[in-house]
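1st attempt posting a full record on here, be nice pls
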Amino acid sequence: MTDALLDWFAEHARNLPWRRERTPYRVWVSEMMLQQTQVATVVPYFQRWLDRFPTVEALAAAPLDDVLKAWEGLGYYRRARLLHRAARQVVDDYGGALPDSEAELRRLPGIGSYTAAALMAMAFNRDAVAVDGNLKRVAARLAMLAGEVSEGQVKATLQPYLSEGRARAFNEALMDLGATVCTPKTPRCDACPVSAYCAAFAAGRVDEFPTPKRRKETPHVTRYALLYQDEAGVWLRQRGTDEMLGGLWGFVLQQTRPEGVGLEPVRHAYTHFRITATPVIVTTPPADAVPVPLAELTALALSTLDHKLLAAWRTSQSASETV
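the predicted structure (as C-alpha cells):
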C-alpha cells in the first residue's frame, strides 16, 4: 500500500507554503495554525506571519499584542498565546532550535500528542504517525473501524505501512488523500490509490465510516455591548489571558441591558456556542475599560465579534450624520 500511496503523492501533493523552504519553525507554525482551521484560510495568515516573525527568535522577542494582531481573525487565540510562550521557552532553553525529541516537544506549551508527532514526522522525518482528522477517516475506512475512532486504533492501522525514513511523505500523503480524495462526503474512491487495500470499499460501505457523530444542540447566549467614546478615544477592555479570547481587546459585554441607545443586534457563531450581542451607546465610560485613541485602534487585536460591533457602531454614526 505504501508504494501506491507515495507514488500518488508524488504526482498529486498539494503545493503548500510550509512544505517549501521547510524548517522546523515553519512546520510548527503551520501545525498550530491548522488546528481546527481549513488550509485555505491558513495559507495567507501563514505567509503574513512569516513576514512579521521570520524566526523563532523574532516571535519570542515580540510583544503579545503584536502576536495576537498577526493572528487576528484566525480564531482559537489560545493557540497564538501558547505558540508565543513556547517560542520564548525554545529560545531560553534550547538556544532557538526546536527540540527533535517527542518527549522534549511535549514539554513546550501548546504541543500535545498530535503536534509532537506531526513535528517529529514532518519537521524531522522521524518515524511517527500524526493522527489528525484526515488520518482518522482514512484509517476508519481502511480497517472498517466502528464507533469513535481512537488515536491508538489509527496508529495500529497505519503504523505497519510506515517504512523507515519515509514518515514525512507518508503522513503528508495520507493528509492530502483525506483532504482531496477520501473526503467526509462523496469520497472519490475511483481516484483513490489505496482502494485495493480498503475494507470499507471492498464491502461497499465507505459511507458508513467513520461512524457519524451525533450532533449536539448549540447553546445560544445574549449579551449587551457597551459602546462609549469621548475625546480620549473609544473605551475598550483587554481580556485577561485566562478568559476566552484572552489578550484581545474589545467592548465590555454584560448580561443586563444598560441605559442608552440600542442598535441592531450583532450575531456571531463560535465553535461551541452562538452569541447575539446588542450594541448599546452608553453615556458613561464602562467599568474596567480604558480609552483607546482612534489612531491606535487599528493596531490592536480585536475579535471578529468586536469588529462586527465596531462596524455596526460606525454605520449608525454615518447614518446619523446624513440625517
